[in-house]
Design a protein that fits this description.
single chain; 296 residues; alpha/beta; 44% helix; binds S-adenosylmethionine
Length: 296
């Protein structure tokens, strides 16, 4: 297992969720259990956490980390869009808070075999849930030029989408694009050198695009934002931490609409971002944005 995942914006999330005893929380992206552990610390002695993650390795990690809380932790290996079914199975109709900490955990990012990382060599897998039936390599092999281009443009916001799509097509005519470094090199060659940023790897947006596609990340987020809030008690809150602008835009617009409809009240007018100190301590937190809304 790679190094531990450091939870982001912990104090900010805990204050917004107002964690305390007798309450029930959903951690819909439990990962290594970092945020869940913090909820437990504040919700002693009887607060309950329902922890969800669809990644087998994350579930094993979370189970280990949260074992001391006995039956106060209910862990499920599921897509969080299945929250309504899980709550029904537990006979729980309302909860006090929901947390979504989107994106990847360090456990996933740092394991080269998972294919998420631009560094090192690994298979182009990128599935967060190992049960998903096609990998990034499968998609790259099977998509048409138009599909490749629109994926890069929409999910990567990549201005060089056309060139990269063309380069992938040319390359896969010779042989399938199977590894992270092969894809990275194709992107590096496709983008004119004078446009290579020194700060950010030129293939970052391409990797983001395929990851979003493989895991249907935006569709899953859309669905949980539509249904999640209906399980909150009055005054219950939902917190969402996102790591790129497509997610943050969706969270912002959904919260605004629910506010206009009079069913939720926005708590954060602007997204909360990590302090300089946190960014220094945990560089992965740099792009995090936290928004919160409350059930009316
Ligand atoms: C940033 S990590 C969460 C880290 C966690 N908050 C902690 O403190 O350790 C995001 C997690 O969400 C999971 N995830 C992403 N999309 C999911 C989905 N649709 N259903 C279930 N889990 C999902 C990922 O597998 C990953 O483990």
């Amino acid at each position: 297992m790679g190094s531990q995942h450091i939870p982001v914006l912990v104090e900010e999330v805990m204050n917004l969720l107002r964690c305390e005893a007798h309450k029930t929380y959903v951690d819909a992206t439990v990962g290594g259990g970092g945020h869940a552990l913090e909820i437990f610390k504040r919700a002693s002695p009887d607060g309950i956490v329902i922890g969800i993650d669809w990644d087998e390795e994350a579930i094993a990690e979370a189970k280990g980390a949260l074992a001391p809380f006995g039956d106060r932790i209910k862990i499920f290996r599921e897509n969080f869009v299945r929250l309504p079914d899980l709550l029904e199975a537990l006979n729980i109709s309302e909860v006090d808070g929901i947390l979504l900490d989107l994106g990847l955990s360090s456990l996933q990012l740092e394991k080269k075999e998972r294919g998420f990382s631009l560094k090192g060599e690994g298979p182009l897998d990128m599935r967060m849930d190992q049960r998903i039936n096609r990998t990034a390599a499968d998609l790259i092999e099977g998509l048409s030029f138009q599909e490749l281009e629109s994926t890069l443009r929409e999910f990567g916001e990549e201005r060089w989408a056309k060139r990269i799509a063309r380069a992938i097509l040319q390359e896969r005519e010779k042989k399938p694009v199977g590894t992270t470094q092969e894809l990275r090199q194709i992107v590096h060659r496709a983008i004119p050198r004078r446009f290579h940023s020194r700060r950010i790897d030129p293939a970052t947006r391409t990797f983001q695009a395929f990851r979003i596609l493989v895991n249907e990340e935006l569709e899953n987020l859309r669905r949980i934002l539509e249904t999640g809030w209906t399980f909150l008690k009055r005054g219950g809150r939902i917190c969402v931490i996102s790591f790129h602008s497509l997610e943050d835009r969706m969270v912002k617009e959904t919260f605004r609409r629910l506010d206009r409809d009079g069913v939720m009240r926005g708590i954060t007018k602007k997204p909360i971002t990590p302090s300089e100190e946190e960014k220094q301590r945990n560089p992965r937190s740099r792009s995090a944005k936290l928004r919160c809304a409350e059930r009316v």
